[in-house]
């Protein structure tokens, strides 16, 4: 099962835990990342994390993951609802991914109800708060089978 995971957080998630705690909770992104690292280390899983406010930076990192990452866990933030480019990058590298949203996007504004990624995700987790990241990693470790390495 997945032995190397890339955790991606999109725009504004660096603000996690600092504002809107009623929606996103009070846990900070560094705390999320530390917890994910401990979860992976306990299972001898390689984890790399990135957060960027820049779509192109995330796309470049996704390209770099091709051939060396087994699974992606991604909270795209607002790019969920706008980015065909992010969708295309994930499809281009052919790495299975789990889409995570801290909030239940389907209980929020209508513009947050559509995702450009969900139809291609192995799984979508939303509304579980930051536990969604733990659940997504556990899913990836248990159920995502690494692609055969290109000869
Ligand atoms: O629920 C999520 O995790 C989500 O992906 C995350 C989002 C998100 C990400 C970062 C910041 C904010 S708004 C915010 C601003 C300041 C502090 C906390 C949150 C929303 C939304 O854009 C998405 O619609 C939903």
Task: Name the poorly predicted regions.
Answer: none
Main β-sheet, spatial strand arrangement = 2-1-3-4-5
Number of helices: 5
Strand content bin: 15-25%
Estimate percent helicity: 25-40%
On the 0 to 100 scale, the average pLDDT is 95
Structural class: alpha/beta
Gyration radius, rounded: 14 Å
DSSP summary, beta strand count:
5
Report on the biggest sheet.
5 strands, parallel
> Which molecules are bound in this entry?
ligand RP4
Q: What is the end-to-end distance? A: 20 Å
What does this structure look like?
Strand 3, helix 4 (84-93) and strand 4 form a beta-alpha-beta unit. This protein has 151 residues and is α/β, with parallel strands linked by helices. The protein has a 5-stranded parallel sheet, with helices on both faces. The radius of gyration is 14 Å and the shape is globular. The chain has helices spanning 21-24, 29-41, 55-65, 84-93, 131-143; strands spanning 4-9, 46-51, 71-75, 97-101, 123-126. The chain contains 5 helices and 5 strands, in the order E-H-H-E-H-E-H-E-E-H. It binds the ligand O=C(O)[C@]1(O)C=C(c2cccc(Sc3ccccc3)c2)[C@@H](O)[C@H](O)C1.
